[in-house]
Amino acid sequence: MTDQQCINTIRVLAADVVQKANSGHPGAPMGCAPMAHVLFSDFIRANPAVPDWISRDRFVLSNGHGCVLQYIMLHLLGYNLSMDDLKQFRQLNSKTPGHPEANHGVHGIEVSTGPLGQGISNAVGLALAEAHLAATFNRPGFDIISNYTYAITGDGCLQEGVQAEAVSLAGHLKLGNLIVLYDDNHITIDGDTNVGFTEDVLQRFEAYGWHTEVLADGDHDVVGLAAAIARAKAVTDKPSIIKIRTTIGFGSVNQGEEKVHGAPLGAKDISDLKTKFGFDPEAHFHVPYEVYAHYRAVAAKGAAAYAGWVKLFDEYKAAHPDLAAELSRRIAGELPANWRSLLPVYSPADPAVATRKLSENVLNKIALAIPELIGGSADLTGSNLTRWKGAVDFQPDGSGIGTYAGRYIRFGVREHGMAAICNGINAYGALIPFGATFFNFISYALGAVRLSALSKHQVIYIMTHDSIGLGEDGPTHQPIETLASIRALPNLVTLRPADGNETSGAYAAALENRHRPTVIILTRQNLPHLAGSTVEKTLRGAYVLSQPEGHADITLVATGSEVSLAVSTAALLANEGVHARVVSMPSWELFEEQPHDYKLSVFPDGIPTLSIEAMTTLGWSKYAHASVGIDTFGASAPAPLLFKKFGLVPDAVAEKAKKLVAFYKGRVPESKLNLPF
Fold first, then answer.
1. Which reaction does it catalyse (predicted)?
2. Contact call for residues 503 and 385 (beta carbons, < 8 A)
């Protein structure tokens, strides 16, 4: 009876947790309880005492609506979640928020889920990372990296476009270490799935190259479930999905209906549920001794597996000391020594180059020295310039086009999937992933980029073809508003470098910020190298590039391709007796982290500031008294014509600067940073 007792305990705990919070989703945890019990009892190899063990099996609850299920399992297995934590579900500052959040204090949560489709897509990244690290570090007799990624997903996740992108790539890559349990309960928020989701899911996955299984009775058949998972593990050249027919809210008076999806069951229903399952209807949050004993025994098996791995790793260190030291460095999150010395440095005498090409130069210098850097492009390799010399593609062994030890990922035309997969790669550990596309198309990926920031994942987004500088492709490809939207995301660093030194600095920022993502925004058109730019100044977010002798009448602040425009404008103004300072501001976020005195030295009192950026002017009022920018969509024409059309040329900017100086003549404009709060 232990299996059934454990499963029923999970079900009644789920009902109690949601009831006490008066908010949440009890239905999925109650229906998925047998899956969770079988997975953690018989298959998942992990050690709650050492939750970050690199070779542990990973579990992803793709459908964040079932977060209570994950919290309950972590509590029962002895992770750092107490019964009091369960009772604080969805409360302010609790360990149990409304959806699982990675890197926010709870061990055992690998990735942040909630937005549907993200979890299963992250699971693809976790599986990809394992395949790559195993191919890189394992040697005969030493399977140092060897684990499975298990995910529970549902009808909602399988309707999202991001999962289709990710699982399509997983099938192509033959990720046999990925096993997905599909909670086929036929219910979404709108009711029965027959109102809008009647496809044959398994036929779709078979077309993607997945191994598929069906279990008709996921409510009771734990033996059949275990057998199906075991068969999936035996298929090593394909990812697997097991379609498991379940009853949402199993045991509730409203089981099988949408009513149990997203609301507490109510006291009467919970009392009857407990009586039906042999529990005291008056007891709340009760876990029988036998259930705790069962899961503590499971945790002990995990501890024994970890101890065996430690012994194996000690032997590995003796047999392969260089490999062991390299893996240990990566696991510790330490970058190679002196890697910064490899960054290219430029002078104004060097020829003008597009920053996307300068980015390629950086990758060619650092890729071999930082072997944890892994990534690729969403089918724009030749435009993004992200494949370094000598790179090997990440492809299935035996494919003839790469190996699992390769580090260049062909993501295909899958921007959203790319970003979500990169989150999973970083969540695995020991790897720093990057993904690339045109800057305009980061909008396709924004859901996953947001979770990069929320989850503190170090993902590098390399975005080329910024603004109107891409020219003839026109307004459909010109990201006028995009920079403002990603600047609005907390815990994300944006960098729009103006030349070679700033591009090198952008990579320094991206690689050294270990707990947040970075977006590097690059040009198609050539830019000159600027006198006064350095890697170190770039890391301050903004700095004074040039200062006139004596007094200054105005500060011109710009980013990216418009910094050289500001320099040219300052020279033109000087000929007319107007003295301009020039500030390069590659990163608002890094600048905001500087001391207040430094920030005031960049944007001082008493001088008006004019911002110049070939993007929307939204947000610049934080720093500037007036702005030159683009607050409409772009247009289709060669880039030089577009910059002239939108007034982003020296004479037009100079006219606006003179008007601003004239407006403030006889007045003393305060710095926008000098506020009393």
1. D-sedoheptulose 7-phosphate + D-glyceraldehyde 3-phosphate = aldehydo-D-ribose 5-phosphate + D-xylulose 5-phosphate
2. no
Tell me which DSSP letter residue 150 carries.
Answer: E
Q: Helix, strand, or coil here: 270? A: helix
Query: How far is 46 from 59, CA to CA, in rounded Å?
Result: 10
Q: Where are the alpha helices (DSSP H) in 456-606?
A: 482-487, 500-512, 535-538, 562-575, 588-592, 596-602
pLDDT tens-digit profile of 533-550? Answer: 999 999 999 999 999 998
What is the model's pLDDT at position 7?
98
Active site residue 481: no
Rounded Cα–Cα distance for residues 544 and 363 (Å): 28
Percent pLDDT > 90 in the chain is 96
CB-side exposure of 645: number of CA atoms within 13 Å?
Answer: 16
pLDDT, residue 233, reads 98
Q: How, if at all, do strands 626-628 and 609-612 pair? A: parallel
Three-state DSSP state, 519:
strand
Tokens 């992200």 sit on residue: 386
**Token digits for 574?**
């000087």
Residue with tokens 């000098």: 674
| Confidence (pTM) | 0.98
- Tens-digit pLDDT profile for residues 215-274: 999 999 999 999 999 999 999 999 999 999 999 999 999 999 999 998 999 999 999 999
What phi and psi, each to the nearest 5 degrees, are found at residue 525? Answer: -85, 155
Ramachandran bin of 372, using left for φ above 0, alpha for ψ from -120 to 50, beta for the remaining angles: alpha
Strand-pair category, 580-584 with 543-546: antiparallel
pLDDT band at 677 (very low <50, low <70, confident <90, very high): low
- Residue tagged active-site, from 415, 502, 562, 589: 415
Task: Show the CA angle centred on residue 64, arms to residues 112 and 31, nearest 5°.
Answer: 145
Q: In this structure, what DSSP letter does residue 176 have?
A: T
pLDDT (mean) for 13-19: 97
pLDDT of residue 668 exceeding 80, the answer is no
- In whole angstroms, what is the distance from residue 175 CA to residue 171 CA? 7
What DSSP string runs through 327-354? HHHHHTTPPPTTGGGGS----TTSPPEE
Q: Look at residue 566 and tell me whether its pLDDT is greater than 70.
A: yes
Contact 264, 6 (CB under 8 A): no
User: Which residue blocks in 370-493 are alpha helix, DSSP H?
Assistant: 381-384, 415-428, 446-455, 482-487
